[in-house]
Specification:
Layout lengths: L2 H18 L3 H5 L4 E5 L6 E6 L2 E6 L6 E3 L1 H10 L6 E4 L1 H8 L4 E2 L3 E4 L8 E5 L5 E7 L3 H6 L4 E8 L1 H13 L1
Parallel strand pairs: 5-8
Antiparallel strand pairs: 1-2, 2-3, 3-4, 5-7, 6-10, 8-9, 9-10
């Protein structure tokens, strides 16, 4: 591993620890991740594991946007589960497709969520179905009956494909 890659790995792990919690960075980004740098600015842009995108480092705020794969790794890596929002089973299908999460559809949420934070959206069985940006605090998500709780950035397209394949096979 080159010195530049070694320094970049240490940097992304520290950012992940800051954003997602202590010691999450090492479990989220193992030694064999591939770090892609911006051609223009030469700054860290993407993090891949075995060819699968885990996260994008946003230049606007220096924090990560997770993919579904990255969110799954984060939920497994985080000992004290945080930054999660659980939605009603009936609305999970729409959230997987990329629809925003409305406060009235939130079953439960991490109380520590602050507006603007990256959050993982879970279905009734606590499976990752989407990722997005919190628009309300965790307490507000549970208390409010109106308004957008999470702006969904990415739904789980693989689950949608599997669901469609199942319907076709029947």
């Amino acid at each position: 591993m080159s010195n530049k890659t070694s320094n970049a790995l240490e940097k992304i792990r520290k950012i992940a620890d800051y954003q997602f919690g202590k010691r999450v960075g090492e479990r989220l980004f193992p030694e064999n991740v591939t770090i892609v740098f911006s051609k223009r600015t030469r700054k860290i842009r993407y993090v891949y594991l075995n060819g699968t995108l885990l996260a994008t480092l946003k230049p606007s705020n220096g924090l990560f946007s997770l993919t579904i794969e990255g969110a799954n790794r984060f939920m497994k890596a985080s000992k004290s589960k945080r930054l999660w929002v659980q939605v009603q089973e009936e609305t999970a299908v729409f959230v997987e497709k990329g629809s925003d999460v409305f406060a009235r559809h939130v079953i439960n949420a991490d109380e520590e969520i602050r507006p603007g934070e990256e959050v993982v959206i879970l279905d009734g069985q606590r499976r990752v179905i989407a990722v997005g940006k919190a628009m309300l605090s965790g307490k507000e998500m549970r208390a409010f009956q109106r308004g957008i709780a999470v702006k969904v950035r990415r739904g789980d397209r693989e689950k949608i494909k599997k669901r469609k394949e199942t319907i076709v096979d029947e």
